[in-house]
Amino acid sequence: MPTLGLALMGTGRMAHVYGPKINAHPGLRLEVVYNPRIASAQKAADLYCGRAMDDLNVVLSDPKVDAVVIATPTDTHVDYIEMAARAGKPIYCEKPLDQSLDRVERAMAALDAHPVPFMLGFNRRFDPDNAALREAVRRGEIGRINMLMSWSREPSPPPIEYVRTSGGYFVDATIHDIDLLCWIAGERPVEVTATGSCMFDSEIGAEGDFDMTMTTLKMPSGALVHINNSRSCAYGFDQRLEAFGNAGMVQTLNHRDDNLVRWDARRTAAREPLKHFFLERYDQSFYNALDEFHGAIIAGRPPSATAQDGKAALTIALACVQSAKAGVTIKPTYS
Amino acid sequence: MPTLGLALMGTGRMAHVYGPKINAHPGLRLEVVYNPRIASAQKAADLYCGRAMDDLNVVLSDPKVDAVVIATPTDTHVDYIEMAARAGKPIYCEKPLDQSLDRVERAMAALDAHPVPFMLGFNRRFDPDNAALREAVRRGEIGRINMLMSWSREPSPPPIEYVRTSGGYFVDATIHDIDLLCWIAGERPVEVTATGSCMFDSEIGAEGDFDMTMTTLKMPSGALVHINNSRSCAYGFDQRLEAFGNAGMVQTLNHRDDNLVRWDARRTAAREPLKHFFLERYDQSFYNALDEFHGAIIAGRPPSATAQDGKAALTIALACVQSAKAGVTIKPTYS
Amino acid sequence: MPTLGLALMGTGRMAHVYGPKINAHPGLRLEVVYNPRIASAQKAADLYCGRAMDDLNVVLSDPKVDAVVIATPTDTHVDYIEMAARAGKPIYCEKPLDQSLDRVERAMAALDAHPVPFMLGFNRRFDPDNAALREAVRRGEIGRINMLMSWSREPSPPPIEYVRTSGGYFVDATIHDIDLLCWIAGERPVEVTATGSCMFDSEIGAEGDFDMTMTTLKMPSGALVHINNSRSCAYGFDQRLEAFGNAGMVQTLNHRDDNLVRWDARRTAAREPLKHFFLERYDQSFYNALDEFHGAIIAGRPPSATAQDGKAALTIALACVQSAKAGVTIKPTYS
Amino acid sequence: MPTLGLALMGTGRMAHVYGPKINAHPGLRLEVVYNPRIASAQKAADLYCGRAMDDLNVVLSDPKVDAVVIATPTDTHVDYIEMAARAGKPIYCEKPLDQSLDRVERAMAALDAHPVPFMLGFNRRFDPDNAALREAVRRGEIGRINMLMSWSREPSPPPIEYVRTSGGYFVDATIHDIDLLCWIAGERPVEVTATGSCMFDSEIGAEGDFDMTMTTLKMPSGALVHINNSRSCAYGFDQRLEAFGNAGMVQTLNHRDDNLVRWDARRTAAREPLKHFFLERYDQSFYNALDEFHGAIIAGRPPSATAQDGKAALTIALACVQSAKAGVTIKPTYS
Lengths: 335, 335, 335, 335
What we know:
The structure is a homotetramer.
Chain A lengths: L3 E6 L3 H12 L3 E7 L3 H11 L2 E3 L2 H6 L5 E4 L6 H10 L4 E4 L6 H13 L4 E4 L6 H11 L6 E9 L6 H5 L4 H17 L5 E7 L4 H5 L5 E7 L5 E7 L7 E8 L2 E5 L7 E5 L13 H4 L1 H17 L7 H20 L9
Parallel strand pairs in A: 1-2, 1-4, 2-3, 4-5, 5-6, 7-10
Antiparallel strand pairs in A: 7-11, 8-9, 9-10, 11-12
Helix pairs in contact in A: 1-11, 4-5, 5-12, 6-8, 8-12
């Protein structure tokens, strides 16, 4: 399998998701770990057998670096995309592109000017169950799509510092469901209506953000979409999809660490709590996303999950924010 | 068990739901079947061993008639309530009270002037599973209520004539989910947002009505509510509830005719299609509703499911209509 | 519906199962309750609106008694069958016919000499789920039957006095599974192998009886049958069937009082404990068995569940006893 | 992680199970592939990046070979164990040790004389679900073990040539369930009773073998065990465990390729067919078994799944053969 040398940019949580998967993938080689603080870069480089670098220009001119994986803080994504595109390096960028549509358009302009292969890390598309549901829908198992539903309930609220810079719950989290459901539906909403509330964590409310939301999308076909988000969930990371069509319905089940069923005097047919959070639940999807990136570059085809998809998802998420604040349905425009 | 003599008003579909249940209940006696067309009254009276009558004044002055069950067309409910209230007869009235808030208020004024026991037939409250879910929530099994969800998907669209006089999908059907969820929540929404579409039956769309809707309610506590309605469903009458709280979740399962699980080369762990429609699925609930009516009158306490509940549910359903048409969130007022 | 006047013989637990069901059945009339102690008869007669009698000859010559339901202690069944048969009364007899094959043959001789309609109360055949499983098998859903399995685990051991006169676990309880599985299979075993153990209640072991057994039957077709019995079960009355064929498998699910699914921090997708015991689980089956008896007599056809079935089941149960004691496979003969 | 150089002996189906797992394990190095036919060895060696060898003495004196993995035909296991033991090499041997107790004892004598670390490939112990069930039982979740049940139904009968040299169904397949259940129970049966039949493949019957068996074991504690085996299964590779105790029950669920639930007009809540066969279902278990072997050797402790376990399982499987043929319960002895 032809091998691709990668520069992993960033040394935070997401970098540590991608590091081991790059090492496990037979077609990928971790060449460089980049962080402007060399000590951080070195620590991660030691872990994943790469070279530590703190100068991005050096990274981008390294002949062994065939492509970059951007896993840095969100507000750096656009700058790094511009630099990598100019250097002609294929780019895998952790989502979201940015929290601002203006800056997203700047990234897209750079990619237009320097058309390198680009993939946005909408990892949930690459989860085997989500992909199998889409396949079942595409095969016509449910007939025409009439309704789509997605639940994403997180085990517990993030630190308030995270919330403050997250762009808000819709932009930070709902955006995942939005992209996934548009990808399954094969269309983007003409109407966006969202409602939010704050019942778990009053600090989040004090920031003007929500910790529970319900979002309704109306598609050009007439299909209706419901997105159910919560920052807290007692029984684990609740991740479900439901696609309802005129010929039937298909759903995805939650994941657990074991497949035992327990019967006792209090409860019967009981299962374990769910996988704890996205790292546990979607572990495989990150590997599969890198595999898609690798396969596309090797085959010379554009990777799925494009910058346009990222812009559209952000547009919809921002419409959610607006709808929830103003109590009106928003008709987004996709230029 | 003290017995109550009933006049069953009406001989349509709902009258034939109540007739056999009155006969099966040890505390109820079917005395009279009323229909202005005496032949229709006689046919039903023969079936359920009552006396046929076509003069409502005679019915309401019959000393063996202790109470009335109104199962006539919706637009007659208010008139009959006024007459029965004036005659001092306890009233069980099939839902909805009326499609117009003005007329609902007229009925309530009559009940204020002549305070007879009154019960509105919100039968889904009396379904054993729905009641068990409410009980579980009340016992604190899920902690505080954060989200409620209700699915009501019907097997196939009603005749277009029915649709035309139904008051629209929200008033005809969503009103059931609305009442049930407010009853479970113990509160009524401060914000109502609804979206509709028409994908199954273009005749329904031509009437300006929807055959699929998604409704979001926001409660005073902050709890969010989703209602999922469809006029068509390939796999039967899909009826589900989900109550999500800070300590857990409780759901109700769909009903089937048998409890077999089937495994073959195409599908494993498969179950039968669902019960066909509301008559099959909610059969027990109509009996239980009559039992509540009987028990309340015998005990001298007001029956649950009041005219106020009916008015509130209609107010909310009308807010759904308005929200779906105008694309804005409505803040209903409950006078 | 033509009505049948019944004499209910006995006033013990099973009589109180049948009493309310006779009253609820539109084609049955409880005429007489018989007990040699008139006070006991009177108490039950008051409850079920019949006449109390303590002289069986009077009962059997009462012109309003069209048939008898024998729900007396097992050791009286044969005598009462002989008397009722001589009197020309159709007989519904609670299982087992008797614990001794000799006495069973005496009953069968009486029925040969006085061929009245006779039905043995193998109620589990009339359980809707068990019947639906047999129907699915008969329709060919699983192809040919290769294996059958039945679980009957009781919530807790009976009083030791009951155990002492029960004929042993195989004759008292396994006999139900035996009849049910032979009825589903449409054939009777050519080989019987059984193993028992006593781990729950040492008093049962002291009587030489078992409180857990596993029984294997081999059918003429080659099909293998497993019966799994336990006198104790922490999570309720565990009743399952599994029919495995060359084209698939069909199973029955356990019953619960509600259809809720519970999710919390300890357990997910959990259901209630099972129905407590046979009275709760098989309530409907007793009504259905009486309905079969009524329908057969009205139609002039022999009721299903014959004396021959009872004799065969007892023959197999006694073979289980012998196999478990001697550690050898027994080849039963059915004369 | 300290690395162990392995000689993989054999190039058949099981060798191709172990090859990729040795390569994937960070603590294992595939040094040599051995086959007396060098061309076969070379082909597999190329695949897994090892050196091909056809002389076992050379293999066993290679200083880079730290241990051997025996994945050759069953009738060679004992000879190769003797040679490897004499050479002082730790041994991982695919099950069964041999089909003959005499030869098994020869292997054990060799291991006594040359006490190298030895592990028998009872891979099902290392399946995460089976291990989780045992852990749950050990933690006391079900109280005391009263009953254990295991289902192993294969998708379709093996070629008749395989059957002929397999030692019969009990020795070839039931032996897996036997080992797994004794390992979970923590004890070995004092009584063995088995029944077999042949309904799927008449060629198997013509060989005097069975294609369906039911086995009952009685444990010293009194616990009863049922093993359910079939050479054919329409819906895939049916693998289930059920552990029933005085405080509850725990079961393992079957595995599928996806986690979708399908609802349509014919079937609801339906899942995919099961994983096809043992290579798909137990893939992870083979990796975990090698990991146990590696961990034990590195830590200097004996690997679990010993030669004694293999001998005991064979003793019990041979008792099954004898019981099924003679129709008597066998009391095995474990010297």
